[in-house]
Each structure stands twice: as structure tokens, then as C-alpha cells.
Amino acid sequence: MSWSKRMVIIHPLVSRLAGVSMTFSELIDAVRHDPRAVTIPAEWSQGRACFGGLMAALTYDAMRAEVPEGRPVRSLAITFVGPAEPGKPIAFEVEILRHGKAVSQVLGRAVQNGQVMTLIQGSFGAPRQSMIAVAADAAPVLKPVDQCPELPFASGVMPDYLRFMDIRWALGGMPFSNTPSPAIGGHVRFRDEPYASPMNEAHILALVDTWPPAILPHL
């Protein structure tokens, strides 16, 4: 069992970023317009691959479009099969495994050069009556966002996709700070996003995956 945890508060706020060629919302719109050929810019890379959180978000959004209204997502199993290369077209394919009375089982694939790069199996289901009630965990108590230090973007040192993220550290130590704390966390939002429409699960998938592994502050 790992004692390291990540605690994140996601903010639907606007933070400006100059000179951005393609925002998260624009990439989502590209998938909705034509999921058969979407090219992710190099600015969204993580090493030699496209940022995994973005790949999951775009694949999920293509899946969501094929599910009837009234069936929110209940579970997602996400596998990053291989590194998707920035600057080359990616096809987002959706297969409906089954539409039942209340539950849809859906498979989503991100395919590049004929190879599956990201695979998601999702369950979407309508609410059901149940005698079982499980209370949600309380949200972490963190300092207000304006009192938390921003993780500055360092080009050539940090993954490129972090230029699009505004991360405010509120819990634990920064990466490579040799901090003994078993947890990290804070506030996170996209930069340069208009938020003309409400945030959905695709936004959350990308934002949650923004944070580094909780082991890094120990180093």
C-alpha cells in the first residue's frame, strides 16, 4: 500500500497565457468536429509523447458523444498503451459494446499509424434506487488559491504541457525538495480557457493527471 496521496482542488477560472496556438477547449472542439484526424501540437507533449491526461480527455469526449443522455459516467479503466506522437494525426474511435436498459458499456481508442495508443473502457449508467448510501469523502482543507505559491513553468526542464496549467501548491513539498510529507496537493486550472460552457469529466481527467507522482517531493 502506498501512503503517498495527491489532493487536488480544480478551479473553473480563467488564467491568461499569451501566444497559445491551441487550447484544451479547441482540441476538444477538434475531436467533436472530426474525430478521425486530430493533430495535437508539440506544446502539449510530455517527453516524446502527447500528455496522457489530454489523450484520456479527448478519448473520453469522443465516447461521451455516443452515449444517450441521462447516463453519466460511472467508471473508466484507462490504459496508455503507447506514446502518441505530437504533430501527427490521431483517430479517436468509439465502439459500443452494449446499450442496456440503464447501462452503456463503451470502448474508446486513440489510434495513430494504425496502432492503439490509448484505450478506455467506460460504463455509463442511469441512476438507480438503492438501500445503500455511501458518504463522500470530505474535500481537503487547503489554503486559499491566492495564498499558495504558483509552480512556475520552466521551458526545457518541465514537461511542455505544463505551460497550459496554473498549479498552486498547497500541501506537501515541491518536486525534488526532499520533503518527508506523504501527500501533495493544491489548486489547478487551465490557462487561457474561456470556459464558455460548463466543465465536464473530460476537463477533470486532464487536470487531475496534471499533478506529478506524489513520490517526487521525497527526492
Structure description:
- This is Putative Acyl-CoA thioesterase II.
- Belongs to the C/M/P thioester hydrolase family.
- InterPro entries: ACOT8-like_C, Acyl-CoA_hotdog, Acyl_CoA_thio, HotDog_dom_sf, TesB_ACOT8-like_N.
- GO terms for molecular function: fatty acyl-CoA hydrolase activity.
- Pfam families: 4HBT_3 (PF13622), 4HBT_3C (PF20789).
- There is one protein chain.
- This protein has a single domain, classed as Hotdog Thioesterase (Thiol Ester Dehydrase, Chain A), CATH 3.10.129.
- Helix 2 (52-64) runs antiparallel to helix 3 (201-208).
- The strands form three sheets. Strands 2-6-7-8-5 form a five-stranded antiparallel beta sheet, with helices on one face. Strands 1-10-9 form a three-stranded mixed beta sheet, covered by helices on one side.
- The protein has helices at residues 24-33, 52-64, 201-208; strands at 5-10, 38-39, 45-46, 49-50, 73-80, 89-99, 103-112, 115-125, 165-171, 183-190.
- It has 219 residues and is of the alpha+beta class.
